[in-house]
Amino acid sequence: MTPKIDKTAAPTKLLWVDLEMTGLRPEKDVIVEIAAIVTDFEFNEIGRYEQIVSQPCKLLKKLLDENDWYNDYPENKQTFLDMAGAGKTEEEVEAELLAFVAEHFGDEPAVLAGNSIHNDRKFIARYWPSFDMRLHYRMLDVSAWKVLMQGRYEVNYEKQDVHRAFDDIQASIAELKYYLDWFKDAKN
Q1: Is residue 158 part of a domain?
Q2: How many domains would you assign to the chain?
Q3: pLDDT at 82
Q4: 89-to-100, 110, 162 alpha-carbon distances in Å
Q5: Is residue 55 classed exposed, middle or buried when 0-12, 13-18 and 19+ CB atoms within 10 A define those classes?
Q6: Residue 99 gets which letter from DSSP?
Q7: Which domain covers residue 126, as residue numbers?
């Protein structure tokens, strides 16, 4: 069910999502891991979902070998290869995500949040279209804050590059908190 969006209604929660994929091309690459955290606007965790997405071992190896980025993260590559047949199918994950959003958002469209979330949204639209329909068209992209903070205020936030879904979400939430705290401190 696609929720009706009231453009004047303020969202009450955020759906933080991070996907780990074999690359950045939704038309060719596949999702291997997802984590989602629902928070309020004080960034208190309300709910959490994590899952490995099962992919055929041969396909996964081919796509990971094609992506030079994984040469810098060989432990991630090996972890994903080791878990190739584990996890749940894309259909099972989508069904669980729909239930997760229904539980935490009810009829409210979920506002997607994260770093460079537009790219994750492309994969969501391609692989989980029913889940995509439950999301608000607006998104909270922490990387846009990064551009503003670096370019205008010369504020840099160094986050740990783990490149595992749950760790990356926690880093995104911490980064946005850092920027908001910076504004609060600058105001005083």
Answers
A1: no
A2: 1
A3: 85
A4: 16, 23, 24
A5: buried
A6: H
A7: 14-141
Residue 37: burial class (beta carbons within 10 Å; 0-12, 13-18, 19+): buried
Cα dihedral 125, 126, 130, 131 sign: negative
pLDDT digits (tens, 9 = 90+) for 117-143: 999 999 999 999 999 999 999 999 999
This prediction has a pTM of: 0.92
Mean pLDDT, range 65-82, rounded to an integer: 81
Q: Which amino acids are annotated catalytic?
A: 137
Q: Confidence class of residue 80 from pLDDT cuts 50, 70 and 90?
A: confident
* CATH code assigned at 134: 3.30.420.10
Q: What single letter denotes the amino acid at residue 12?
A: T
Helix (H) or strand (E) holding 65: helix 57-66
Confidence tier at 73 by pLDDT (50, 70, 90)? confident
Tokens 């980025």 belong to which residue? 69
CA–CA gap between residue 89 and residue 60 (Å, rounded): 14
How far is C-alpha 128 from the chain's CA centre?
Answer: 13
